[in-house]
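Q: Predict the assembly, please.
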Amino acid sequence: MIQAHELSKAYVDLHRGEFVALDGLSFQANRGEVYGILGPNGAGKTTALRILSTVLQPTGGSAIVNGYDVVTQPSQVRRQIGFMSANTAVYDRMTAWEMVEYFGRLYGIEDEPLRERMEDLFERLQMQEIRDLLGAKMSTGMKQKVSIARAIVHDPPILIFDEATSGLDVLVARAMLDAVAELRDQGKCIVFSTHIMREAERLCDRVAIMHRGRLLAEGNLDALREQHDQPDLEELFFELIHQQEAVVTA
Amino acid sequence: MQWKNVKLIFLREMRDQLRDRRTLFLIAILPLLLYPLLGMSFMQMMQFMQSNTAKILIVNAQELESPELQDAEWLPPLLEGDFFSPELIPGKTQRDSLQVVRAESLDPEDPADIPLLKIEGETPEQHASRLLKAGHVQAVLEFPAGFGKGLLQVRETVIDRQPAGQTNALELSPTYNAANEKSQSAQIRLERVLRLWRQKITAHNLTDSHVPIQATQPFDFQPVDTAPVEQKQVVVLSKILPFVLIIWALTGAFYPAVDLCAGEKERGTLETLLTSPAMRREIVWGKLLTVMLFSSATALLNLATLGLTSKFVTSQLAANPAFGSLGSLTMPSASAMALLVLSLVPISALFGALCLACAAFARSTKEGQYYLMPLMLVTMPLMLLPMSPGVELDLGTSLVPLTGLILLLRSAIEGQYLQALPFVVPVLGVTSMCCLLAIRWAEEQFASESVLFRESERLELGRWLKSLVRDRCPTPTLPQGVLCIALIMIVQFFVSVAFTARSAEETSYSFIVISTLVMQLGCVLAPAALMTIFLTSKPAKSLLLDRWPQWKHLGVAGVLALLVHPLSVRLSSAIQEVYPISPEMQGSLQQFQEVLFGSPYWWATLLLIAVLPAVCEEIAFRGFILSGLRHLGHKWWAICITAVAFGAVHPVMQQKLSAASLGLLIGYLAVQTGSLLPCTLFHAFHNGLQVGVYRAAEYAEANPNSFAYQLLGGKDPALYQPAVLLLCGIAATLLILSLQKASYDRTKEEKLQEARDRGNTPLVSV
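A: Predicted assembly structure:
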């Protein structure tokens, strides 16, 4: 469903000159799996996912999302995905219902199917209470629910979550992870970036570990543990990062 | 672009803005309150000004009260009690506003009079100065000793018909403080009273000496004004209304734009929208329509409340005889009002797009608000220029953005439709061009990652300059292309100002050579060449000089120049028929042409007129600037903007229009052939033909039997006949169409745009 090939992104920075945020990332994510992208802050996770959601353009490489090219067919790509990150907020001066309806219409859903879909979503995500509540009056948990509803209102085959649990309390984060697992069970292809190892262990079928824009390791969690002879994912993560740091320093 | 998405975004943004109390206050509530409040304050201020009396200290008034003068019929009384005589100031209100204080009647025991008393040792000047400075009185009038006797002597001299010079001239010198407005106003009123008093004394003296009053006024002077009253009354509004309209259109556009762009960035909802299927262009248009609507609504509400308040205030003032001269205001005609409302579409589109582009650049609402002032500073001179005395609607002013539009609106309000008609097309053309450019800029801002995801960076000039050279691109960037246009225009402006002063005195061949060399090499070539060297890593590619063109393209360029010549001459004369060149300019151009084209050094003239501009202007415009602008991703946008800039740098207004249209052709030639040489060849041939045809026409006139006479002789030369023009037009079109097949080099942005335009089918079947 997602094929990224040698994706790169470089910026021109006043101090550092050309700064490579993403350096030749290649991976494939399939239907019915959660593909985790693990990495510390600044690893290039957000850049990679922004490229997949066509918000940014790569400076090298290519990515195909459900058959559409992220560079030449951005509108079609955006119809295939639901994107949610810490940077995708809800509108303060719109109610939950209005916001989800607005995005549903932008995805081109007709009135009646949209109303049915929204009724179903609001019921499943237990959002009926906040239906007419303005975004400005919502708690973080409520906002997160609205964001999920907004991202899946068009029932996309692919979902991209970029550190979606960042800043959430334990209860809301758990509800969020449950929602992701449910979507995976529905056969969606999910790309889930995080720097919290427990989330990755709990949710991801396969993971990619990234640091300084590069892919350090990729594969099934058990296979990775076995390959690196390290049962603890967090330790495995640190080892890989340190190895990379040593290479860079040398 | 899907208009369905634009409508959705527009409706959402409208709802969002209507739920924002700050925006609503600014757009709807403020205009409703502002003008009535201002009107009320004005009325109160006027009442205060009316009731504000001025005190005049009269010193030595007993000069007029000697027994000979007291009951003299020929001397009308100046004072009556504490005021001036009713004969001299008609109307009680007016009279009461000028109170008289007699110095001799001041009571040393009265605390109110004590400050007015003269202090011992104080000179009359010091006394007056002290009182005026302290504001106790607003003017001091001292009758000099012997003033009464002097008046009597003057009368006797007149009645006895004594020769002139028998009496000394009398003088009254009221003292006032020009730095104090109240004192200045009192002095003006006092002077009016004294003049009338003097006039009455003169009239009595002349009547009693049997000299008709006409002896001092042999004729009366009464100007006749043919302007209808309504037109005079509408003149005030014709200056104010367009200004108010534009200033509020800008303000009304700015705040919603900041909220819709910088505000959304700040609140994190912009990225949410960017991940929806809506295209960036659809987002820009949805937001732009919202901003336009708010801008128009703000301007209209302000206009309506200003009009109603002004009408009310002036009608109240007109009822008061003291302000009768202000008169009541006549509202513009319905058609002028309709035009004002209609003009809001381009004005709000222009400001909306400019504000959106600026607001998109800002990281936060606070930062966005900082950009209002620069935007105001840029637009304010264009808004104030039409209000300057002597600035009228002509071809020059009609081509100035905003200024032309304001002048056109002013003419419409004044009912001068016929005079304004020829300038509708240039004003609309320039306004549409500015709107399109502003919208395009806003779209660019929304498509730019560096703008949307801009992070704060410390400004270090040294590092920035270093990075300009270190991180330079192979060809110029879009901002560098725009900067080059601005640089050429600025340098050219200063140099041309310096040369204009000298050209009035001198039009020698050497002066023309020097000025042309400076203008071309210094103003056009130097900025482009320096920017190419320092800011690009592949100068030859930047200037389209990295490869030799195809021979056939050089041939096409040469033949095209020959075919376009008669069309270009006809276009120029058509432009001059609609917009005639002023006689002064015509004279200068003719002198310039005679000196230059008539010179025996024809080869030098050819180099100067044909080769030099062709090389310099092509390197700058079709080389550096066009290369930079092609990063827009649409070749026609780049060609059009380059052509407009190319036209704009030509000195004569009428030349600008024809040069811009030629610029389109040369720009197309540059893109399709991928080389600067065909452009330079075309440009040089085109300019060279002007010299050649001028000399050939001279030869033709001298040799009526020659072929040249058949072609160029007579009043209406055969070369410019419609049939020849038609044939040249057809042949030129065919040649241009032949270039369409050329596989030209596309920029990265152009390739991407073409790929995006190609289709929506999946690349890989799923």
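Chain A has one domain: 2-88+157-249. Residues 2-88+157-249 of chain A form a domain with the Rossmann fold fold (CATH 3.40.50.300).
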